[in-house]
Design a protein that fits this description.
Blueprint: H1 3-37, H2 40-66, H3 72-92, H4 96-114, H5 116-126
Helix pairs in contact: 1-2, 2-3, 3-4
Keywords: Membrane, Transmembrane, Transmembrane helix
Transmembrane segments: 44-62, 74-91, 97-113
C-alpha cells in the first residue's frame, strides 16, 4: 500500500475515533447538564449525537480508503471538503486550529483528488 493512502486512511481513522469518543463523552454528560440546566441537556445530547455520527463517517472513510473500496475515495473527498468548510470559521476567528484544519483537510482533498487513476489501479489489483 502506498504511504500516501496509508497516511490518509490512518488520519481519517484517528480523527473518527476521537470524534466518536468525544461524542460519547458529551452524550454521557448530557444528563448532568439536564439536571442543572433543564432543556439545555437535550441540546448537549444533540451535539454528542452529531459528533458521534461525524466520527462514524470518518471511520468509514478511513476503512474505505484503506481497503480501496469503490466508495472510499469519494467519501474521503466529501469528508475532507467538510473538514475544510468546518475550518473556515476558525480561520476567520483567528485560531491556529483553523489554519491547521485547512492545511490537513486541504492536503487530504488534494491528494485524493489528484490520485484518482492510481486509486482505481490499486483497487483493481486488490480485487
Amino acid at each position: 500500500m502506498p504511504t500516501g493512502f496509508r497516511l490518509v486512511s490512518v488520519t481519517f481513522a484517528g480523527i473518527g475515533a476521537m470524534l466518536l469518543l468525544g461524542g460519547l463523552a458529551v452524550l454521557n454528560s448530557a444528563s448532568a447538564v439536564a439536571a442543572y440546566a433543564g432543556p439545555a441537556g437535550s441540546a448537549v445530547a444533540g451535539v454528542g449525537v452529531v459528533l458521534g455520527a461525524v466520527g462514524v463517517v470518518h471511520l468509514a472513510a478511513g476503512y474505505g480508503t484503506w481497503r480501496f473500496r469503490s466508495w472510499g475515495r469519494l467519501l474521503g473527498l466529501v469528508v475532507a471538503v467538510g473538514g475544510l468548510l468546518s475550518s473556515l470559521p476558525l480561520v476567520v476567528l483567528g485560531g491556529p486550529a483553523g489554519v491547521g484544519g485547512l492545511l490537513l483537510h486541504g492536503g487530504i482533498a488534494w491528494y485524493l483528488y489528484t490520485t484518482g487513476e492510481r486509486y482505481a489501479r490499486l483497487r483493481q489489483t486488490r480485487a
